[in-house]
Amino acid sequence: MVFDRSGSITRFAEFGGESVSDDVRYLADWIADSRDAAGLDFVIVDKTYAKLYVFDSDARLRGSAPVLLGGARGDDSVSGIGSRPTAEVLPEERTTPAGRFLGERGHNARGEDVVWVDYDAAVSLHRVLTTNPMERRLERLATPTDEDNRISYGCINVPVDFYEAYVRPTFASRHAIIYVLPEIKPLEQVFGSHPVAAGYGLSRSQTRRTPWK
């Protein structure tokens, strides 16, 4: 945190030296300063770089991991998609929606414990699925590039070890906020966010890249 000219405290997220995208830094700083997470732990999903970050309630980074995301790019779920059989979901409809969600533990249709991101759209955060070997989900997570991380029907897949060490404890006894960054819409439109001023100048987050159009 820093003090501005008026003596007000400006709060920033703490990344522990980890390299993150400009958009993740921008949003995490805004969450820290605005207290948008309302005292809860929170998760940021960077769809552009297929990465997930878990923060505590003081906006300190706990851990990060690669993720698998919906096969189709886009920031909205198709209306009514959560009530349709998986086999009827078209490839272009397999999006991971962007937005601010109140994550909650629950169970999917297979009885597995998951974290619901958007229950109505049947989008959850869960351990990576390996039921279809042809999808090579474990291999996709292990590659250094994010170019092969779009494979799911919209759910967010994380490595099993990371789920057990970070995701499950975060949602074990209460809710947490899940922020899924857009890949088409501007961040400000999705979250109502703004750059965080730092002292006499601007925060590091104001040097972020322009959102995709």
Strand order of the largest sheet: 5-4-3-12-7-8-9-11
Number of domains: 1
Class inferred from helices and paired strands: alpha+beta
Averaging pLDDT over every residue, what do you get?
89
N to C succession of SSEs: EEHEEEEEEEHEEHEHEE
Low-confidence stretches: 3-7, 199-213
Instruction: Give Rg in angstroms.
Output: 17 Å
Give an overview in words.
Strand 13 and strand 14 form a beta hairpin. An eight-stranded mixed β-sheet has the order 5-4-3-12-7-8-9-11. A two-stranded antiparallel sheet has the order 1-2. A two-stranded parallel ribbon has the order 6-10. The protein has helices spanning 22-34, 137-142, 160-170, 187-191, and strands spanning 2-3, 9-10, 42-46, 51-55, 61-66, 69-70, 99-107, 113-118, 123-127, 150-152, 156-158, 176-180, 197-198, 201-202. Helices cover 16% and strands 27% of the residues. It has a single domain, classed as L,D-transpeptidase catalytic domain-like, CATH 2.40.440.10. It contains four helices and 14 strands. The chain is globular, with a radius of gyration of 17 Å. The two termini are 32 Å apart. The protein is an alpha+beta fold and 213 residues long.
Topology:
Layout: E1 2-3, E2 9-10, H1 22-34, E3 42-46, E4 51-55, E5 61-66, E6 69-70, E7 99-107, E8 113-118, E9 123-127, H2 137-142, E10 150-152, E11 156-158, H3 160-170, E12 176-180, H4 187-191, E13 197-198, E14 201-202
Parallel strand pairs: 3-12, 6-10, 9-11
Antiparallel strand pairs: 1-2, 3-4, 4-5, 7-8, 7-12, 8-9, 13-14
